[in-house]
Amino acid sequence: MATLLDIKNFVADLIGTGDGTTSVPKRDRIINSARRKFYSEKKWSFLKKTATLNFTDNEADLSADASDYNYKFDPISIYTYSSNIKFQFTKVEWDDLTAYETSNYVYAIDKAGKKIKISTGDTTVSMEYIYLPTDKVIGTSDDTDEEPVGDITAIGLLSLSMWYLGSRQSMAKYQLFKDEYKEELTRLLLLDEHAIRRFRYTSNDRRGYRRR
Question: Is the separation of the CB atoms in 66 and 126 below 8 Å?
Fold first, then answer.
């Protein structure tokens, strides 16, 4: 798997800041920005996670139970099990939640307040979601950390475009690397969508709500 150092070396080679193992704070802050943007471009299949939400009075704290949740996206699914039967919650507006009975299995999310609320009295519920990888430390201590995406070319290209935009050294280079990023992003989007479809079509999972 590719590491953070691979991104640093990719960028360093093209902007002339020396070896990626040497910390360059401005470059490394830009890489963090590029990572955040790239990982928020879509619901990447490799960023799926499941967390256990702990409810008190029908409300749970997402900042505690799913601290890396990417608030750009709604949860993939909210569900609970009762007697081996899976119950899937449906999203509704926060102000409308009180209109539903406990048997309706609905939820509402307050992304600004980092809270989620459900209509039922369940105390433990699962949430499948897209996570946002955390920013890396400005320095060298995280250099060997593996990136969630196997190919870091897109992040490197986006970092380069941000570098030239921020330094105003060359708008032509900014546009060049931005265009190359878009091309690489399109390629990865298609590959990821193909991987998702392939999983769906070849899965032996049985439809329905009963857990095997």
Answer: no
* Domain ranges (residues) in the chain: 4-40+137-202, 45-130
Does the global pTM surpass 0.85?
Answer: yes
Question: In CATH, what number does 45-130 get?
Answer: 2.40.30
Phi, psi of 183 (to 5 degrees): -65, -45
Is the pLDDT assigned to residue 7 strictly greater than 50? yes
The mean predicted confidence, pLDDT, of the chain is: 90
C-alpha dihedral (65, 71, 76, 82), degrees to nearest 10: 30
Question: Residue 13: phi, psi to the nearest 5?
Answer: -60, -30
Helices (H), the chain: 4-15, 25-39, 62-65, 153-167, 171-202
**The pLDDT of residue 5:** 97
- Of residues 116 and 166, more confidence is placed in 116
